Amino acid sequence: MDVLFAPFQYEFFRNGTIAAVLVGGLCALIGVYIVLRGMSFIGHGLSHAVFGGAVVAFILQFNFYVGAVSWGFIAALLINQTVRKTTISADAAIGVVTTASFALGVALISRYRRFSQSFDAALFGNVLGVTPMDIAVIVFVTLAATFMIFFFYKQLLFTTFNSEVAQVYGIPTFWIETWFALILAAVIIAAVQIMGVTMIGAALVVPPITIRLLTDSFHRLMIYSTLLGAVTGLFGMYLSFYVDVSSGASIVLLQSILFCIALFYVSKIRNKRRLVATPVYGPT
Amino acid sequence: MDPLIELNRVAFGYGAFNVLDDIDLHLHPGQFVGLVGPSGAGKTSLLKLILTLLTPREGEIQRVRPDLRITYVPQIETVDWSFPVTAEEVVLMGLDHRQNIWPWPRRRERKRASEILDRLEIGHLAERHIRDLSGGQQQRVFLARALVADPEVLVLDEPTTGVDVRSAENIFHWLTMLNQEGMTILLTTHDLNMAAAHVPWVVCLNRRIVAQGPPQDIFTEEILSDAYKGNFIVLRQDDMIFVQQRPHPHGLKEVLPDPVEGGLPNHDSLEKTVQPIPASKEA
Measured at the alpha carbon of residue A168, what is the angle toward residues A164 and A173, in degrees to the nearest 5? Predict the structure, then answer.
């Protein structure tokens, strides 16, 4: 039991674990909608876009959270509107908008080299740097995202399933998508400290696709994906502590291992059972 | 009686190209209207204009009331069949979400969904994933979603595409019943024979309205040839109309006998009712 409880004597681990569990669950919850909309790349892209926004906020001496969330929100809206109003596909729009934003961040860093070290943490995640302020932000974003998903569950479901038809049925799809873009940008900012820019994309996508392999029910997908994200956040922190690797990488590695197990189960065991259970008709 | 939806001199296009021109169309309460025309004629665009999903380039579209309840059954090809939802969850999407802010449906909402699914004879499939249903059952699920909202106008885009003949017949049977109960219905279809048999008012479209009226007036070789730019054979017996596009003489010359001499049905009763077939322009 010491193995489980010993790390909690350190404040950084306590803070980091609270943040990792919340961020893991939150990313996995939001990720369900991202995966089902066929925009799996958006998390990866927006986290890079936000990086550009964070650098700009630093240079202009803006509040980091305000600058980065605004930047991410604008990037998400630009992507949504480009896909809605043009024939450009989602992956291409994400590629253009977010890479341009990331490139701006990189250009500014290479111009003002004095703060490059602190941005290493933003790129790869640094659990040691989680402060009570960061936890407060994560809790706030988690509550806001959960509130939105809870009270707009049906509207979000219909909009994700078929945005155009949802509009006919009186759902304000533009506002739903705008709110979702804002929440997504906020989630990515909240997750940067723990996951790092380079790992957020995986944290958004891997839990939902793992559970999607195992269920055909939307509400089960939401619940189990969130649980998987939170649990891997917790055990990823242990892994990070004992193996001494980056927290974001350990959480994503753990999620990826579980994805492989689910994939193996579905392709080898469940399908085999189905094959046995299905009667074969035809000449014998 | 004032039309529920009125289109006056409507034009719509993508880029420099106009898909629809000079469309005048009135949809009156209790009407059952079928839009027919070749692929690319602008049928789906016209529906989307009526649903306000598109904005006309010219002309105006008026609704009798801003809160007119219209529901829509999209083309089955536009549905993401891997999306994790059951038949019942799809039907529940059609309910007015402002009536219930909680994420879970109320008991009476589930009861209403169940009644509609039962009426369409798929109540036993409510818990099934939509991918696990046949084409006809899938189409009925989306029809149920449209009906659960208790619409005044029901709009359907190709409701019989991808379903077998019996299912298509059933769908038109239900639509006829709904229309007899007072629901206004507007649909597009490629199935001219089904439209001839079930739809009381047909609008023949090819970028503009070629003709509109009862099927017996619209399904003539002249009108269909004008709309589809091809040769059609129209057979009439009693109050039934059969429409068949004549095979292209060049494409089938080597494998089929002459389409006029050998290609028609060999029933005496039908031969008597065959209308004169104009000579092919190419012949």
Answer: 55
- Check if A150 contacts B (Cβ < 8 Å): yes
What does CATH list as the number for B1-68+152-213? 3.40.50.300
Number of alpha carbons in the 13 Å side-chain half-sphere of residue A232 = 32
A219 burial type by CB count under 10 A (0-12 exposed, 13-18 middle, 19+ buried): middle
| Helix, strand or coil, per DSSP, at residue B17 | strand
Cβ-proximal residues to A244 (8 Å cutoff; 6+ apart), any chain: none
Angle separating helix axes A173-195 and A11-36, nearest 10 degrees? 150
| Residue A105, helix vs strand vs coil | helix
Q: Which residues pair with B8 in a beta bridge?
A: B60
A215 contacts in chain B (CB < 8 Å): 84
For chain A, helix, strand, coil in percent to 5 are 85, 0, 15
- Would you call A218 and B101 a contact, using CB atoms and an 8 Å cutoff? no
Cβ-Cβ contacts under 8 Å, B79 against chain A? 162
A8 CA to centre of own chain: 26
- Tens-digit pLDDT profile for residues A91-138: 888 888 888 888 887 787 777 765 555 566 666 667 777 888 888 989
- C-alpha distance from B232 to closest chain A C-alpha (Å): 35
Residue A157 in contact with partner chain B when CB distance is under 8 A:
yes
Return the domain boundaries, chain B.
Answer: 1-68+152-213, 81-148, 215-283
Q: Determine the residue among B14, B75, B83, B88 to mutate to test chain A binding: the one whose Cβ has the most chain A Cβ atoms within 10 Å.
A: B83
Supply the DSSP symbol for B129.
B
Find, in chain A, the residue whose alpha carbon is nearest to that of B51. Answer: A168
Q: Where are the domains of chain A?
A: 12-277
Which residues in chain B have Cβ-Cβ distances shorter than 8 Å to A218?
Answer: 83-85, 89
- Return the half-sphere exposure (C-beta side, CA atoms, 13 A cut-off) of residue A45: 24
Q: What ipTM, to 2 d.p.?
A: 0.80
B72, B86, B90: residue with CB nearest A168: B72
Q: Do A218 and B84 touch (CB under 8 A)?
A: yes
CATH architecture of A12-277: Orthogonal Bundle (1.10)
| A280: its two tokens | 């074969």
pTM, two decimals, is: 0.80
Q: How many other C-beta atoms can be found within 10 angstroms of the C-beta atom of residue B237?
A: 13
pLDDT for B73 beyond 80:
yes
pLDDT reported for residue B182: 92
pLDDT digits (tens, 9 = 90+) for B108-118: 999 999 999 99
